[in-house]
């Protein structure tokens, strides 16, 4: 990736950020929705679920909710890409002498900045309701980095889907499928409490890897007493997003170059 491509991507990043300045309700509603989920699941299920290995449910839940919010980057970014295509903005950008990957790169960078703010607000909300970070500052920063690393991968998945599935039906299908993918993980309950085959699938969900790694780094209950999530959570939390990026960044660049009305 050349310096010129990065420069073009940064200009487009500023364009997307300025759009949020004019229309701030989109990121605000996203943050409010995540806070609502956090409070709903935290207070409704807080005293009703026992964890393998012991520990309170609220400190187990919060890192999972942070991870779930990062997963939602798929549908929000896909919606933005679809909207730009319908309004003809993407066609105007494609007519300019800029690198093909610069446009999706600018979108990903802007969405990642928005995600960092959203994550900070969620963590502050978690501290207000009683969540605690019992790990070191360095470990907590690494956990935040892993969350944003997952978000970056999900953004590129959303960019690709927004370029190839531009109809309303495609966006609706992704919005529906994100929830089962998020629930089939360790976000709300430990995979060890699930039937064997279901627990296996949940354990190998990329979302589960990030959630388990963050719980350990934050010093919160992990809900695991053995297995791959107990032994290699950080490695998986690094590896899964890297694999997704290796697949979807070039796919997104090619889909953008081949885009037709």
From TrEMBL:
UniProt record similarity statement: Belongs to the ABC-2 integral membrane protein family.
Biological process, per Gene Ontology: response to antibiotic
A Pfam family matched in the record: ABC2_membrane
InterPro entries: ABC2_TM (IPR013525), ABC2_TM_bact-type (IPR047817), ABC_2_transport (IPR000412), T7SS_ABC-Transporter (IPR051328)
Cited PROSITE patterns: ABC_TM2 (PS51012)
Domain of life according to the entry: Bacteria
Domain ABC transmembrane type-2: 25-259
Annotated compartments: Cell membrane
Record field: transmembrane: 25-45, 57-81, 140-163, 169-190, 197-218, 238-256
Protein name: Transport permease protein
One cellular component term from this protein's GO annotations in UniProt: ATP-binding cassette (ABC) transporter complex
Keywords linked to the UniProt accession: Antibiotic resistance, Cell membrane, Membrane, Transmembrane, Transmembrane helix, Transport
GO terms of molecular function: ABC-type transporter activity
Lineage of the organism: Bacteria, Bacillati, Actinomycetota, Actinomycetes, Streptosporangiales
Topological relation to the membrane, as annotated: Multi-pass membrane protein
């Amino acid at each position: 990736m050349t310096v010129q491509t990065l420069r073009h991507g940064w200009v487009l990043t500023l364009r997307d950020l300025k759009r949020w300045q004019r229309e701030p309700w989109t990121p605000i509603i996203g943050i409010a929705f995540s806070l609502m989920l956090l409070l709903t699941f935290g207070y409704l299920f807080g005293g009703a679920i026992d964890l393998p290995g012991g520990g309170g449910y609220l400190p187990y839940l919060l890192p999972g909710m942070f991870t779930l919010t990062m997963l939602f980057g798929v549908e929000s970014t896909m919606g933005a890409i679809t909207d730009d295509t319908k309004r003809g903005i993407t066609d105007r950008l494609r007519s300019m002498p800029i690198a093909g990957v610069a446009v999706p790169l600018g979108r990903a960078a802007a969405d990642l900045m928005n995600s960092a703010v959203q994550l900070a607000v969620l963590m502050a909300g978690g501290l207000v309701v009683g969540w605690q970070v019992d790990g070191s500052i360095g470990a907590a920063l690494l956990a935040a980095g892993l969350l944003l690393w997952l978000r970056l991968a999900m953004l590129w998945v959303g960019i690709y889907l927004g370029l190839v599935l531009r109809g309303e039906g495609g966006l609706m299908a992704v919005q529906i499928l994100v929830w089962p993918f998020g629930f089939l993980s360790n976000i709300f309950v430990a995979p060890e409490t699930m039937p064997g085959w279901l627990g296996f699938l949940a354990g190998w969900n990329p979302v589960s890897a990030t959630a388990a790694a963050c719980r350990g780094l934050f010093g919160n209950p992990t809900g695991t007493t053995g297995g791959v999530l107990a032994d290699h959570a950080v490695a998986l939390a690094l590896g899964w997003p890297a694999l997704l990026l290796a697949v979807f960044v070039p796919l997104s660049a090619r889909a953008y170059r081949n885009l037709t009305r």
